[in-house]
Each structure stands twice: as C-alpha cells, then as structure tokens.
Amino acid sequence: MDPTDRTNAKTIASKRSLWIVTIHSFVVIPFIIACVGLIFFIFFRSLTTEEQTIYDYLNDVKTGSSHRSWQAAFELSKHLLYPKDAEVHSKRFVNEMIGTFVHFGNKDKRIRQYLALAMGRTDEKQFVEPLLDAMAGEEGDTLVAIIQALGLLKDEKSGPHLYNYLDNPNSKVRLSAVIALGNIGDPASAEALKRALRDSEVNVVWDASVALAKIGRRDGKSVLLRLLDRSYLSKFTEIDADEQRKILITAIKAATLISDTDFIAAIRGLSKNDHNTEVRAAAMKALAQKAN
Known about the structure:
Elements: H1 3-48, H2 54-63, H3 66-79, H4 91-103, H5 109-120, H6 128-135, H7 140-153, H8 159-163, H9 171-184, H10 190-196, H11 202-214, H12 221-227, H13 230-233, H14 241-255, H15 261-273, H16 277-291
C-alpha cells in the first residue's frame, strides 16, 4: 500500500473512532443513565404510594372538583368489581355511601350512576332501600344504573318495584329491568317476564327468555332455541362476531337450566359444529353438566 494511502486510512479510522466515542458519550451513556433513573423512580414511587381505600374514593367524590368527583365515583365502582373488602359491610361505609348518594341526587348524574353501581357491587342489602327510593325520581342512564344495581343485589323485594319499568318508553330501561329480574331469580316475576316476551325491542325479548329460564320457566323456549342458532343471529347485521359468541354462550347457560330434549339437541349441535372454540367449549360443558 502507498504511504499516502496508509496515512489516509489511518485518518479515516481515527475519525470513525472519534465519531463512535462521541456517540457513545453523548447519546448511549445518557440514555442508559436516564433509563436506570426511571426504573429507580418507578420502584421507589411504588414503595411510597399507598393504594386508595374506599374511604379515600368517597372523600374525593365529596370534596373533589367536578371532574375529580365523578372520576373518583367511577374508580370506586371499578374497585368494587374485585374481591370484596369486608369494610363495605361496615356501618360507617354504608352510612357514608348512602349519604353521598343522596347528596348528589340533583347534582352530577354521572356521580349518581357510578355510586349506584358501586352500591350494587357490594352485595350489601342495606343499599336496597335507598336505591328503591331513588328510582321514582330518576330517568335515562341514571335509572338504568339504579336498576342494574338492584339486580346485582338480588333482593326479592326489589322485584315488584321493577315490574312497571317493563313498560317504560325507554328500551334501555326495559332491558335493564328484565336483566335485573333474571338476576334476582324470583319465580313470582314470571308473569311480568312473560309480558316482556312481547316487547317491540328484540333485545328485551331475548333477555326475557333468559330471565324466564333462570326461574325454571320454559315460556321463552322458542326464543331461546333461536338464540342457540347461529344462522338466526347472523341475520342481525349489527351484531358482530364477538357479540354473537356472547349471546350463544348466554343462551347455552340459560338452556342448561331447563330439562328439554330440544335444548339438548341444539346444544349438542353447537358442541360439534360451531366454528368458535369458546362456544363449542361452553356447549360441551353444558352437556357434561346435564349428563351428571
């Protein structure tokens, strides 16, 4: 190699080495330091940050800004989705919850809705009366939330109060009332639910058949058989594949509650032929339960 070429090669190598050192010093090392710092920050924050209690959420609902209040009510309702805190049955929590719910009666409806759902998720029967008292003055989504909460609490004395809402002009209210009655599972609601089978809204009819099955009634048999037929559900273009799956599994569970050869045949067909693995699994589980 010519001496000049060797000199040029050394110069290029030297520049490349300098460039690598510069990148390493000003980009890579600071990046690594920043990442390590972030990891330590997250670690120590997790050690020092205490999880909010149900009373913290309630306090934020009562004292926070408008945005913070409804957000705290939402977080409380979400918190109570998980394994129940025994404190929700304490006299203190029950009184504070009822007081807060009543306080927001004519204020932010979003807070009222989330508090109603939170009460429903406690399985605390002392919340039934305040929810029943609140129904008469509510409408729309707030009324729906209160009815849903009563359904979650499953107290039979709520049933008669829900019957009139099966004729409500709002289909969402009628649907929530049907579902709530199904959850409560009181055989005394049979006549009211049979009336819902004639509803103009197909979702109400479907859930009325499920609710009737839950109380051991076969009045909705023809409807349930249609719900066990995917080709029937496919006629409803607004129902996507995931919703079809949910409907089929719900219908399978409801049909399993009644001894009927037609239901068994429909479920067996789904266990063998449906393209969705979850639906087939639910059908096979139902058949196994019926066999025992």
